[in-house]
Specification:
The structure holds 2 protein chains of 2 kinds.
Chain A (H helix, E strand, L loop, with lengths): L1 E8 L5 H10 L4 E5 L5 H6 L1 H19 L14 H25 L3 E4 L1 E6 L2 E6 L2 E12 L3 E3 L12 E2 L1 H4 L8 E5 L3 H12 L3 E5 L11 H13 L3 E3 L3 E6 L5 E7 L2 E7 L1 E4 L3 E3 L13 E2 L2 E2 L12 E3 L10 H16 L14 E3 L4 E6 L2 H6 L4 E7 L4 H5 L6 E7 L5 E8 L6 H9 L4 H5 L10 H10 L7
Parallel strand pairs in A: 1-2, 1-6, 2-3, 6-19, 8-15, 9-10, 9-15, 10-11
Antiparallel strand pairs in A: 4-5, 5-6, 7-16, 12-13, 13-14, 17-18, 20-21, 21-24, 22-23, 23-24
Helix pairs in contact in A: 1-8, 3-4, 3-6
Chain B lengths: L5 E4 L9 E7 L6 E2 L4 E6 L4 E5 L4 E6 L6 E3 L3 E6 L5 H13 L20 E2 L16 H5 L11 H10 L17 H10 L27 H10 L17 H14 L21 H16 L2 E9 L1 H13 L7 H15 L5 E3 L4 E3 L5 E3 L1 E3 L2 E3 L2 E2 L7 H16 L13 E5 L18 E5 L3 E7 L2 E15 L5 H16 L2 H4 L1
Parallel strand pairs in B: 13-17, 17-18
Antiparallel strand pairs in B: 1-8, 2-4, 2-7, 3-6, 4-5, 6-8, 6-9, 10-20, 11-12, 13-16, 14-15, 18-20, 19-20
Classes of the chains: A alpha/beta, B alpha+beta.
Chain lengths: 463, 496
Amino acid sequence: MQHYDLMVVGGGPGGYVAAIRAAQLGFKTALVEKQHLGGVCLNWGCIPTKALLHGANVAHTIKAAEHLGFTVDNLSFDINKLVKHSRSVADKLSQGIAYLMKKNGVVVIDGTASLADKYRLDVSHNGVVTQYKADNIILATGARARNLPTIKIDGQRVWGAREAMTPTALPRRLLVIGAGAIGVEFASLYNDLRCDVTLVEALPRIVPVEDADISALAEKAFKQRGIKVHTSTLVKALDTSGADTIAHLETASGAQTVAVDQVILAVGITGNIENLGLEQLSVATEANFIKTDAFGKTNLAGLYAIGDVAGAPWLAHKASHEAVICVEKIAGVEDVKPLNKQRVPGCTYCRPQIASVGLTEAQAIAAGHSVNVGRFNLNANGKSLAINEGDGLVKTLFDANTGELLGAHMIGAEVTEQIQGFVIAQQLEATEHELAHTIFAHPTVSESMHESVLDSLGLAIHQ
Amino acid sequence: MSSEIKAINMPKWGMEMSEGDINAWHVNIGDKVNAGDDLVDVETSKIVNTVTASGSGILRAIVANPGEAHIVGALLGVLAAADTSDADIQAFIASRSAAPAAELPTPAVAETKAAASVQLAAAPQEAAAPQHSASGMSQLAAGGDDSHVFASPVARRLAAEYGVNLNNIIGTGRHDRVSKRDLEEAVVAAGGRLIGGTTGPSSTPQFGDDSNVKATPVARRMASQLGINLFECRVSGDRGRVCKADVEAVAALKNKLSMPTSGGSSASKSEYDVKAISGMRKTIAARLQSSKQTAPHFRVQIDAEIDALLEVRAQINNANPEAKVSVNDFIVKACASALVKVPAVNVQFDGEELKYFENAHISVAVAIDDGLITPIVADANRKGLVAISQEVRDLATRAKLSRLKPEEFQGGSFCVSNLGMFGIKQFDAIINPPQGAILAVGAGEQRAVVKAGQLAVATVMSLTLSSDHRIIDGAVAAKFMSVLKGYLEQPATMLG
């Protein structure tokens, strides 16, 4: 029976990073992947959707071109070419992972893995089962889109994210159920591609994990773009018997129906914990995710879990970070620190973009902080106006006693590239004074970060 | 300049002395010392004696700290005139620590980071702060100007809020920076209450030896790449930090000291490869040769039926998700129990004196690339099977990655070597000095046995004990083996 020091199940941003780090530390390492190296993130998530949203931004730029003096005639658009671009980016990156595996001496095993016993994996590939022994097994099997009890992804009338990023034609009317990060990105994408989009959210506001101010601005921007937003609304049933799909909505003001051509279901995700042999070995799980300690260790000897399958937040960079600390802990590397979930930034690539880190204002107050809030609107920022993207806000939250940066919340142009400034400040335990004394280059959108900090001190210059 | 610097070395008191343990220093750094003054108490396996000064001078550095063991001839401290510069002292220490790398007392496979920490007179006097003592916040408030203390801005602000002097807080952040958590932990430890809804302290991180030295990031990286301990470096950077130039200075000094090895004649193509043997291989060679030459080995062998053991093992492993106990784990546990019953085998012998151990510290031989190493399950008699199993796995994992700490593989009162997984039926092992005996474990296999005149099948394992006849007699070895067999054949008895 083939033996490895460490085996990883799943080749996503958790799994492949774990495998590389393990190989670097001297483990004889193998990675089992059933489909594509790179996982959902690279093949069916973060990266291909960013490629599509890039296309959406081009559409938006063309639309706004007239204001800048351009006349755009004879405009045509082929969705197939945009999807092709998206797929080619995913393929290229997936090959990049294969190269990294080879370079680091990680053996990649094709197949579907399940635990046969403690320290034992069975990998089945084309009907052949191969047995392996490993001193350490890391499960990084990820997660998949969740269904509702009454509404299920069928790949036809109801798309999940995977179908939504590989359309062969654009739907005329689209219903997006769920206004989390995935839902609002698809709503934004298809709206820019000229579809008639209805966005439904069960909670009282869209992007409900974000700060309430950000949700309000996002909703306002979406409505201005012509997206029909229904919050505090449930989809009770979908009628797919006719040519149109009829959605029966239960809104705060009563029942309503919407006729659409296509539905995207984006109501959260569920961990891929099935068929791994977890039950027979009494591995502890909770609400479809594997329970672990702060370093990914499960209750089963030699078994670890990282990334989406180990619970929220379901973000690729959280998975990669967990991968490194899990492997380093196993190897006995000194000074490995558990992941601090309050320092995990989140980015949503709708238009305008949303980025945040740390506590929301409501969370900070609930946690007992007395909070100094800074706000700065992008319509007072020169660069944002120059690029015609004046809608947006930078909101910063500081502990009034310690000056600790508790949270930062941004909506506007390219804020996903700027949030890192606040994440670094948090990691270095900077206070509002260090940030206030930092020189931000002019003219940049990021000057708004500075102004927001100054505003928390009552010292904003430009508003 | 360095002619004024006098080394205080580990003396050799008698033929058998190879190393000594530092007990206590009689003088402090900065004290004036005259010839004949008591300097430091050193304990050998036989005696405690005092090293006296051979000349006069000021004690400028202590290299060997209490509790550490050092080989004969090792540098313990440095005497010099008051006007000798710290840089010269450091260079002197660096030159001494660079020279005798070959002579390590035990396999030196793990990190070389473990170089002794050096206290220098020039080092900041921050260690003495009575931090975390229970006598209240007022102690934390005491002290002078703390503006030089390296602290995060949040920590500094909080310190002002709490009225804490940062001199009293030991930083555990990167480069020893005082973090918010350090401060809050100190406040909690002193009985103070935390401000606001901040989170409490969690686990405290550990650091390698020279991580306490303040250094620039580039200097730290460079030192680690060049294998230089930051304690060896002078401190010339700003804010009292070792800088790049300081590390380069030590590197240059080391290059001068190390003799260029001759190129050798590589003219004609040879039928064999010539390779210098590794440090680990040298250590294995020296120790095992010495063992065979000095310890008169004799062997006793016994067979144990392990069917009952296998059944208990299956029960444990099926009942507990966290357990994957191996047969070898049972052997470690059984040896530990037997050693407590027959303490005459639980010994170390340096040729002169016998150390009898109260608890069983079992070295487990682990094969690694190009050699072997024997990590230790300490106090195995006090640990349960599952704990032993997890510990052996962790030790073996880190042994393969060369990440064991010296104390994890040096010492041990008994050794187990198991080649059963290769199907070896029986073999003899060489004693791992200064231990008195080693157990060689063969494969458990089904054999025909005679029970009450009837032929039967049982799972049988052959065990062979090699003992040092200078200290363990045949009857003692035989008694140990029969007790061990009893535990293995009736595993419930060792759980009591």
